Amino acid sequence: MILDPDTACALIYKIRRLHGKEAAGPDVLVSNDIDEGQPNKMRMDDVLAEGQDTGNLAEIVGLLEGLESEQMQELAGLFLLGRDRDSYENLEAAKKASMDMNQPIIDLIRNDPASAEYLASGLEKENIRCDARIGAV
Fold it and tell me: What integer is the mean pLDDT of 59-75?
């Protein structure tokens, strides 16, 4: 892999912060004294997804601007590999497919709340896990 796994994991961590999901999992419910017993509790992910950390977006853009074109292509390949798990046999196939993407990777990261999970899934398919790396937890 051309892209440093630590860089990819740091990016995943920043993307999770951007979308407000680094601390909450999908099963965490929003609760307080007023809504106890109410049948329609919101999920924490729903609440956190409403606001983006724009300062963190600048950090992500800076990190992406520091990547070489081959690293960017690999990052886009990881995104596709994770998002469309059954469509690509390996990272090389996903990288080739990423050349036909009509949306820049930064737009996908900014607009898709699941983008960090897609990247993490793509890395895992390459036998790289971020949970043991600095900045990824």
Answer: 94
